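Structure tokens please, single chain.
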Amino acid sequence: MKNKKPKKIITILLLFSSVVIAGCQSLKDPAQPTFESLPMNYAVGQLDSINSSMLSPRELLNDSLLVDLIDTVLVRNLSLLRSQTSLLQLEAEVLEARSNLKPKAGAYIGYSNRKFGLQTMDGAGNITTTIGDGEIIPINLNDFNLGLQTSWELDVWGRLRAQKKAAFSRFLAAKEAQNMVKTWIVEQVAINYFNLICLDETKRIIEQNILVNAELVETLKSQKEAGRANQLGIQQFEALMLNYQNQLNVIEQQINSSENELRRLSGKYNSDIKRSALNENSLTQIRIAAGLPSQIMLNRPDVRQAEQLIIAAKADVIAARTAFYPSLSINGNIGYQAYKTRFLFASPQSIAYGLFGNLMAPLINLGELKANFKRATANQFDAYYAYQESLLIAFTEINNAIYLINSTEKMLENKQKEMALLRNSREMVGELFNANRSNYLEVLFAQQSALAVELEFIELQKNQFASKVYLYKSIGGGWR
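Here you go.
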């Protein structure tokens, strides 16, 4: 009678697998949460399909020194270089996930020595059995073997494919994170560069005022000798010059800090930061088109990253669900085996092979599998929320940047008119003072008022440029 035990075991495994699969039908993918749709347009501005995020920094920024600095920083920045190592790690995970889908094969070579007890079936049989050239099987039996061994898990339910998809999506998400680092670097370099230009201009204006006040002090000293002025006026202007000198010291500190920040971003300890003068470039004239809110999903790296993480989370749910299903694997080996090396390559006598199939269904660790599925489901919901949050953050940042640009532009127009009036007033007071028709207090007031508005105008220009660069980054520009 044939042995029916293996058939019974296979039948039991198949029945149990059917029960497990039927029970897992309730493990459905979590439904996608519903969120408010993106508006058709931003809170300020008109509908505009033009989007400046498609422009590279070289195309957008019209200052060759700034563009060269950005190119250098993007090559040497340490944060960017570190992100490359993260990409390499995730790329390795993708390669590992892909390899899990393919059969594995490896060469093996081995040696063993066995001695069977003479009071055993094997031992008793060996001492009466001949082998090889007719000699009795040795009591201490050598076993030499070499060949190829293979194993292959058949991805019947798609678990390995889901793991590969999750790994690849996380790799793409990491690339988008690297792009976000690039946008941040471009923003920081551009803002620090323009800050330096504005600080240089501020320093020039204050130094010019020091020279003008030095001339006024000499004029007052001459008038004092002629009896038309007193020491009080001289002291007022000398005190003002000391105040200007302190302002110069503060500006030089700020210049040093901005230069060091640019050196840090470029990964250098010491380097000259070349820059143009404020009145020699047209960085303040750059225009940024925000485009439409729907373009955020295409251009902004953090939104694209969140989208890839949703895909990865969905694949994780599939992998966690299919982990409940039985796994089928095929293992095999083929090679040579002999008790003496001189018989090792004898064919076909020394050829050995084996082929095995395994069907394994989870029995005891169902609680762990359920926990993994629950965790994957929660992560998928988190990925949905993170994606929606990234859209909301991007939309808010763009709205804020557009408003800042528009309001600062109006303030610049008003400040420019105010500056023209106060400069004219300063010149008129100076002429009247030289003609002995005004006193030093009027000159002092006109000087301070004109200087204050000039510095405020430079500060507004700096804020305007920073708002434009911020908008450029917010719409997803700078990484191409």
